[in-house]
TrEMBL record:
Coiled-coil intervals, chain numbering: none
Single Gene Ontology MF annotation: ATP binding
Name this polypeptide is given: DAC domain-containing protein
Native source organism of the sequence: Leptotrichia wadei (strain F0279)
Catalysis: reaction(s): 2 ATP = 3',3'-c-di-AMP + 2 diphosphate
Taxonomy, superkingdom: Bacteria
Domain DAC: 9-149
Statement: the UniProt record of this protein carries the keyword Ligase: no
Pfam families (alphabetical): DAC, DisA-linker
């Protein structure tokens, strides 16, 4: 029996790994589409499909896109191995259980939909009339997008991602100034968390587009990676700085990422995730950062070093007032590293003064 993938994200990964542009199977599908032919392709072991197969002929030959294209000129289904390395058979009459419900109209698509539900295999139906590619996997159905449409959607998503990234950078500059002045309010944090949430939501959408684009999405992927560089780390530092919940920053971060756009626009949702009680605290209340964000701007210190410093000094103001000798007294911090941290903090202070002006 075919091993089922249940999570939607995992299902799409499973599908795109096999049919995205640049894959061996997609090459065959593209040839079939270009010739305005139709096809029904089932991935799986024929021994597990015997009860739904009839007629046709056995091949057991090495896969090639050209072979599949030629075989698609016949009416029946084509059976391929799941790793797309073997063509098991062709011109096969697929006879699923007709009591299985389907809302598909064409004979080929009805058979594909029923086979996928009955046997759990991944089935590809290429429409001769509509020139569309539909993927069925169990009860899951996905209509592949046109490459041109995907590139347009990806470009729009990149523009939105850049907008959120710039907003996050501005928020961090503002936060740095407020942290030095000890004037950070809960409202400032909510705004910054919201922008991260919107960024990650758009990121998920773009990841799906890139997966479907396959080799056609190389340039989009480069842009995406550039925009998203260190975003997870800076978000984690923000949560660690301001959460009062006992939950880990990682768990809180995952919950923020799972919020809908409407929920992200709700201040109270974000406030509650950070652990604050809206009945006790208001958005204008001042809150003190622990220093994770500040210390993340210092190069050549490890995550462990940051944890040691935050534990020792507790908050940003204490870190900023510390001297090199204060830092060197901490167990695990060398004199050289203490001087480096102290000099880096001075540079960060100077930059904050410039930003303020």
């Amino acid at each position: 029996m075919v091993k089922k993938v249940v999570n939607k994200k995992k299902i799409l990964e499973h599908i795109f790994d096999r049919v995205a542009p640049g894959t061996a199977l997609r090459e065959a599908i593209d040839k079939i589409q270009e010739a305005k032919l139709g096809a029904l392709i089932v991935l799986g072991n024929p021994n597990n499909l015997k009860d739904v197969m009839g007629g046709g002929f056995e091949l057991n030959t090495v896969y090639s896109p050209q072979k599949v294209y030629e075989l698609s000129k016949m009416d029946g289904g084509i059976i391929l191995s799941e790793d797309i390395k073997t063509i098991y058979g062709a011109n096969i009459q697929l006879q699923p259980n007709y009591s299985i419900e389907t809302d598909e109209s064409g004979t080929r698509h009805q058979a594909a939909h029923r086979i996928a539900q009955q046997k759990g295999n991944l089935v590809v139906a290429v429409s001769e009339r509509r020139n569309k590619i539909t993927i069925y996997y169990g009860k899951f159905r996905y209509l592949l997008n046109e490459i041109g449409d995907l590139l347009t959607k990806s470009s729009q998503a990149i523009t939105a991602l850049e907008k959120y990234s710039l907003a996050i950078e501005k928020n961090h500059v503002n936060l740095s100034i407020l942290e030095f002045d000890n004037m950070v309010t809960l409202y400032d944090i909510v705004e910054c968390v919201r922008m991260y949430g919107l960024l990650f939501r758009m990121s998920e959408e773009l990841i799906e587009y890139m997966a479907e684009l396959g080799s056609e999405g190389r340039l989009i992927k480069i842009q995406y990676e550039e925009i998203m560089l260190n975003k997870n780390e800076s978000f984690d530092a923000l949560i660690k700085d301001y959460k009062i919940s006992n939950e880990t920053a990682e768990k809180i971060g995952l919950r923020v990422k799972s919020l809908t756009k409407e929920e992200l626009l709700d201040d109270e949702k974000i406030v509650c995730l950070l652990g604050f009680d809206t009945n006790i605290i208001n958005l204008d209340e001042k809150i003190e950062p622990r220093g994770y964000g500040l210390l993340s701007n210092i190069t050549k210190i490890s995550k462990k070093d940051r944890e040691i410093l935050v534990k020792e000094f507790s908050n940003v103001q204490s870190i900023l007032m510390s001297t090199a000798s204060d830092i060197a007294k901490i167990k695990g911090v060398s004199k050289y590293k203490a001087e480096h941290i102290n000099k880096s903090l001075k540079r960060i202070k100077n930059r904050a003064v410039i930003d303020r002006e």
